[in-house]
């Protein structure tokens, strides 16, 4: 599978952040976007599933930690890698994300 066939799901409740990340990624990947945790979970459960999820932590309705917990608790979505992309800077925040099953944490 080449990069153009890979799909990245960008999850953030700030449209500007989605535009920024999508703009960077769209040259090499298919990009899907979700503005809430609920929408992200729906997209992740549809075929074809995303190959990677870039997930913000600080969202209003459902935070990224909860989205990640739900993704990792379901056999159908457990294998999708999650990278947190967030403004939360503490080592404790990062450790919490990694303990939840994320494969990366970018600030």
Automatic annotation (TrEMBL):
<protein>
    <recommendedName>
        <fullName>Response regulatory domain-containing protein</fullName>
    </recommendedName>
</protein>
<dbReference type="GO" id="GO:0000160">
    <property type="term" value="P:phosphorelay signal transduction system"/>
</dbReference>
<dbReference type="Pfam" id="PF00072">
    <property type="entry name" value="Response_reg"/>
</dbReference>
<keyword id="KW-0597">Phosphoprotein</keyword>
<dbReference type="InterPro" id="IPR011006">
    <property type="entry name" value="CheY-like_superfamily"/>
</dbReference>
<dbReference type="InterPro" id="IPR001789">
    <property type="entry name" value="Sig_transdc_resp-reg_receiver"/>
</dbReference>
<feature type="domain" description="Response regulatory">
    <location>
        <begin position="7"/>
        <end position="107"/>
    </location>
</feature>
<dbReference type="InterPro" id="IPR050595">
    <property type="entry name" value="Bact_response_regulator"/>
</dbReference>
């Amino acid at each position: 599978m080449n990069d153009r066939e890979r799909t990245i799901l960008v999850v953030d409740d700030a449209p500007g952040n989605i535009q920024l990340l999508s703009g960077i990624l769209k040259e090499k990947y298919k990009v899907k976007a979700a503005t809430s945790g609920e929408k992200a979970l729906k997209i992740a459960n549809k075929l074809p599933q995303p190959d990677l999820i870039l997930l913000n932590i600080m969202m209003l309705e459902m935070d990224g930690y909860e989205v990640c917990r739900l993704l990792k608790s379901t056999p159908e979505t457990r294998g999708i890698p999650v990278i947190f992309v967030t403004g939360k800077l503490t080592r404790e925040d990062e450790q919490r994300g990694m303990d939840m099953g994320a494969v990366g944490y970018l600030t």
